[in-house]
Amino acid sequence: AAEAGRDFIRDIVQADLDSKRHNVIVTRFPPEPNGYLHIGHAKSIALNFGIAQEFAGRCHLRFDDTNPTKEEQEYIDSIQADVHWLGYDWGTDLFYASDYFERLYDWAEGLIKADHAYVDDQSQEEIRVKRGTLTEPGKNSPFRERTAEENLDLFRRMKAGEFPNGARVLRAKIDMASGNINLRDPVLYRILHADHPRTGTKWSIYPSYDYAHGQSDAIEGITHSICTLEFEDHRPLYEWLLDKLPVPSKPRQYEFARLNLTYTLLSKRVLTQLVRDGHVSGWDDPRMPTIAGLKRRGVPPAAVREFVKRIGVAKANSVVDVGMLEFCIREHLNKTSQRRMAVLRPLKVVIENYPEGQTEELEAVNHPDDPAAGSRKISFGRELYIEQDDFMENPPKKFFRLSPGTEVRLRYAYFIKCREAIKNAAGEVVELRCTYDPATKGGNAPDGRKVKATMHWLSAAQSVPAEIRVYNQLFANPSPSAANFAADLNPQSLEILPDARVEPAVAADNSNEVIQFERQGYFVRDKDSAPGKPVFNRTIGLRDTFAK
Ligand code: ATP
Ligand code: MG
Ligand code: MG
What we know:
Bound molecules: adenosine-5'-triphosphate, magnesium ion
Shape: elongated
Distance between the termini: 37 Å
Number of domains: 3
Catalytic activity: tRNA(Gln) + L-glutamine + ATP = L-glutaminyl-tRNA(Gln) + AMP + diphosphate
Largest sheet: 7 strands, mixed
Structural class: alpha/beta
Binding site for L-glutamine: 64, 209
Helix content: 25-40%
Radius of gyration: 31 Å
CATH architecture of the largest domain: 3-Layer(aba) Sandwich
CATH class of the largest domain: Alpha Beta
Strand order of the largest sheet: 10-23-24-25-21-22-11
Protein name: Glutamine--tRNA ligase
Organism: Bradyrhizobium ottawaense
Keywords: Aminoacyl-tRNA synthetase, ATP-binding, Cytoplasm, Ligase, Nucleotide-binding, Protein biosynthesis
CATH topology of the largest domain: Rossmann fold
């Protein structure tokens, strides 16, 4: 536990070990397989798996698969891949709430026999209305006083599939006047004729979250059941059920603040809709806050872990600036990424005094702070590309890059001076005629003259075409509306640069290493790359340019 950050949950865990309340800590991460994991889940994963690591305990991965209409094998698979990608491992502790369906059912019969549960024939709507409000107590169901025999018979017939969806539910019999609405006879089972990814059509009834969750914790011997604050009001019900049922252990529930991020919506409902409605290319679209999206975007898992550590674990909800995540990504990549050159929007340069047909190899360092990263050769020739916006024909005062008559340094190469800008019929600059000074090879002038700008460039012949995808925030609104998210989408969230140029070695490299294109940011090869046509995603720019 030495280097890990401390928080109120870790303090509780430490106290429980010190007092010998527990000898081994067991936590769990319990996703419902109804979508891909997002960065909010990463917070919960790092907390649960992190505690298990730090206190030499275990963390279970448990699929909370109690709602078959929304759950799919694709999600089960992606969740496992994403937890591994984040750097965590459940070992052999992989569980499914559906494995407990039989036991949960038997326990429900026990509740009925003890007069702690009854079958209610009211409609969902009637149940909702009669549940009351914070200021108004609920009203008892007319079916609340059924005998145990009658309840048992109806419940067994619900299980046998005799009734249509929604016809009846099993409810706990607690207190319709409770100040806590969760204790006003909550639903334990509902009828659902649906195909479950693991149990097929075996079941026609499915347990509610509240009924399945705590009992799954107890069956697995979870010591600390950590969930987000929305479940604080469910804790009395969690405890009521543990108290009434013959469970093998009594876990305790603790709540922490969920992660909220500016410019981001972390709700599976919204993320599912973004995918379904085609606002993004899929769950792994690099603009998505999903783990799969972050991965495809080139975000290193260590940066996500660092981010989660920095934000900490608190008891009050707050919104974290997405700039904090971006900072962690940049900080990590600055250390680990090799430097290369790419020209995103090429403008042709002809060096008029450089001999036609000649080329030469220049030395370029791979990482300015890490000599061990070595160097590489880059080709210089008569025809080059520079970035379009590194040239201005009529520059304002503070523009120090290339313009007619000014001299600049081409990184690792020579000083060049612009003599003339050639335009097309539309008046756009399409080519620059320049001269170079052979005495400035390597980037310094023997006569000591200075230039105010150093620019990246590529040889026209010795560079390769590439498509570069530049991403901005998916939402233009710092606090997008979950209800009406489409209105808050950023129309400029994806910019495609189809005519970029990259160093040949970069194009040939099939690894998924993130590289820094000098002066442009961090980039990673995308899975859409084809032979001869690599595609790169911009992971992140070099500095925080996003308007806040
Ligand atoms: P959503 O509300 O988007 O549907 P969920 O909470 O239902 O997500 P689950 O699959 O049930 O998703 O979540 C698994 C675990 O991840 C839960 O313990 C949940 O509390 C936690 N979790 C979900 N979202 C966040 C978040 N934004 N921050 C921290 N933990 C989260
Ligand atoms: Mg959920
Ligand atoms: Mg939820």
